[in-house]
Amino acid sequence: MAANEWINGYLEAILDARAPALSDAEFHPPQVEPPDASHVDMLDVSYFNPTKYFVEEVVTSYDETDLHKTWMKVTAMRNSQERNTRMENLCWRIWHLTRRKKQFASRMLNRRIEKEQGHKDATEELTEELSDEEKVDPDTTHTGPTFTRNYSDLDVSSEPVQKKKSLYVVLISVHGLVRGEDMELGRDSDTGGQVKYVVELARALATMPEVFRVDLLTRQIASPDVDWSYGEPTEMLTNKSFDADVGNDGESSGAYIVRIPCGPRETYLHKELLWPHIQEFVDGCLTHILNMAKVLGDQINDGERYVWPHVIHGHYADAGDMAALLSGALNVPMVLTGHSLGRNKMEQLLQQGCQTKEDINSTYKIMRRIEAEELALDTAELVITSTQQEIEEQWGLYDGFDVKLERILRLRAKRGVSCHGRFMPRMVVIPPGMDFSNVIAPDAGDPVDSDLEATLSDPGLPISEPPIWSEIKRFFNNPHKPIILALSRPDPKKNITKLLKAFGECKPLRDLANLTLIMGNRDDIDEMSGANATVLTTVLKLIDKYDLYGQVAYPKHHKQSDIPDVYRLAARTKGVFINPALVEPFGLTLIEAAAHGLPMVATRNGGPLDIHRALNNGLLVDPHDEKSIADALLRLVTDRGQWVECRRNGLKNIHLFSWPQHCRTYLARIALCRMRHPQWKDESNGDLTEEAASDSLRDLNDLSLKLSIDDKLTMTNGISEILQKAAENVDTAQIVSNFKHELEKVREDFLPDENEPFRSSSLGRVISSIDSSSNKVPSIRRKRVFVVIALDLYNEHGMPDHALVSSIKEIIKATKTTIFPRSPGFVLSTALSLRETGELLCAGDLQKEFDALICSSGSELYYPSSTNAHESCNGGVDAQFFADPDYATHIEYRWGGEGLRKTMARLWNSDESNEVKGESAVIEDVEYSNSHCLCYQVKEPSEVPKVNELRKKLRMRGLRCHIIYCRNETKLHVLPLLASRAQALRYLFVRWGADLSNMFVFVGETGDTDYEEQLSGIHKTIILRGCVENGCDKLLRGGYSYHREDVIPFESPHIVRTDHGTDFEEIRNAIRKLG
């Protein structure tokens, strides 16, 4: 109530104004629902009395900061009529504020109920097959070492995780301005503590004995608005903290910032505008990692095998999304650090009641950010947090993480019981490290008895002071008093005004100490953002109110290099560092202060709890209680013994937050990740030499010679012509097919029927040998340019439309011209099963055209066999194509399989809205399902949940998968998490070197719900207007979600559109335009 005293005057003013009676139309503002029944008693047919409403609903339930500013302006008005009008408007603002808060509370309640139901369903399904002895309630189980969260003071062995210096670690932090020297921290909201953290982490990891190379991947920026250094492709991070000799480790060892271009090259984009360019950045990173894996393989393994990243570590939501896609493309473990979480931010903004969900999403792209965090949770093996509070109160808000379900799954895994595809990421607490290279650490045993006159400015002593000291001391009447130091940006959440009130209200504290507020850099308060300007204005007013001139310093400017000197000044005056934030996610400044010998007073909400537990160097306070803040500060300033003890404890334990300690814990944790990396069954890779790529051509010559000698046959003119084309480096796949055809002619023309055994043994071996040779390296390996046809053109029954074959033929015809220097490779990407695809190709006589088939929405990958077209159509689909032997293993990660199928069945049966005329709106289609695709027939599209809603239900039950509505809303495909048509193209790049930048992807204007994934990236996209009219867009996102422009960069130079569908000339012109 005390914080809302101003409302009392507001109420009196409204009552004194004797507002006239309001009719129903006047009372209910436009486009606002009428109050519910609980508020009926506040209305009177003849007079509007707001007293009960304000007392019951408003006074104790909201933050009135913005309204208070309006109130101050209104009360200053002299015109009574205008003042009363403004009062009425303010009344409705409060009504809307409370209404939005009640809606938010209702949504949170529904979400909590839904999440509890998901936890209950998952628990019941998991315990069905357990015996009574195995059924243990995780809430009553004492958490042993398996469940203990890992704090920085955990006893971790100092032995290296891996003796050989061979680890390759990839870090991703894409937004902001990232460089190793002279970081511009605080330049904007994107360039802050995260930038400093990732740069120092990369440096520190590179000094560890088992780490060979660390790459920090970020965005390349060649904008005239920023320094030229942000446009440099590579920057080596020099080692500041250690004197490790890395000269003999190899020319590529060490830590590097690698800048990947994405989006408009000459524009600096804030993080909210980077979302459409995620896929382009991923493709660029993939190219770099593949090149580096080969280089490191040459240096570390003498070229015998590649060195793949040990982990890919994403920082923040955008980099988490990127790391998830890279992890899927490379099949390597992923680690995630959230830094700041979208759901937590959205909750705080909604609770303030000042913005609607639509406004928040428009400003911060918050729903796109939340979905990226959910996807990162789906993929991450390990999530690193700074505090325990972050795990329980922030990550606990997400669909993809549930503390109780995680304990159940870990208990089952420990006992060797199947989790049926359910997974919860492992969360560990590893506080950030600190670079102590610029810290002049005092002796922990020093009792600090030195004369203050000798340590402060004294004209008689030839002591040179840092410039920032003079800048601070000029504010003080007595600079010898202990300094209470607060260092933060002027953000309302940092609670600086509450600290100033506590200092001003406590006369003993004012008499004994000075207060220094380092609140960022400023030139003119009027030019600052609204929130920051408000805080600074309030600070100046409070200084004037309490007459604190000569006792409070608030310098306008400082450099990053000045911060250690500021800590030193406070420590030399026997001062105290304070962080009074309402909630502090971690509190890196507390560690910095402790390293300089400063005791702390900090908020008890968030990270300072863990820091205090480790350092024991100060006091924790309630940030809302001014008296508590003042008492804690006064206690440390006056009690010299406690001050010295806190100082000693901080200096003694600060090593727990050093970078070496952080890195040892970090490497120990990632060593527990399930190591995955690309492994091919035939031990071949995507970087075959030209010599290896021409093996099949040399085999042709060898086999033809064998045929002439062993079978005493001469080569036909056809064979001679084929070998001549082979020497001219013509398409090898076609050569192999023609060669086999000519061999069949030899067999039929030259060998009589009585020599059937001879034909079978000799020519049969030759043809079999050709099959083996041609299948050894699929024809796609030898292509340089690729045409990917991904037209989702289906009729109302979900079958291929009659126009699909003709469209494919037109695309092939238009691209098989002199546009490309060599014949392109063709890839068909479809939701059809292999059998349906084979029938489609045979119907159009297209089976010889394609070098790869991506079937069942990306769950299967096939290459053409060497059987001729006529035989393949007669022999069935198995004779036409063979499956990639490694792809199934590649996408197996976290596939729920049978457990997922059972859960899907329960969901359909339990949801009454999914029933149409007594039967389920979705039924399983076993005929079109395969080992990595659960196929369902959609009976009524209007009755099924949207993709985001269904995915949320499965995430809450610990199941991770990719959900796609396809084939004109007639089918639902549930795939492994890492399987998709877009990811299949990246697999072809990793496996066979199919360069993504040389891919031309043809799509319609709409398609299946995975349509958006295929448009962006470094490949070229050609959208055929008018070709596909019916898609599944309506089933993609429901309710409050992000928009298509948050995913697709429509202004990208890599995307063009034709005006008339599959017109021959327009396709040619589109390809020419894309280059």
Automatic annotation (TrEMBL):
Its EC number is 2.4.1.14. Keywords: Glycosyltransferase, Transferase. One of its GO terms (biological process) is sucrose biosynthetic process. Gene3D superfamilies: 3.90.1070.10, Glycogen Phosphorylase B, HAD superfamily/HAD-like. Residues 473-650 form the Glycosyl transferase family domain. Residues 823-1009 form the Sucrose phosphatase-like domain. Residues 115-151 are annotated as: Disordered. Pfam families: Glycos_transf_1 (PF00534), GT-B_Sucrose_synth (PF00862), S6PP (PF05116). The keyword Glycosyltransferase applies. Homodimer or homotetramer. This is Sucrose-phosphate synthase. It comes from Adiantum capillus-veneris.
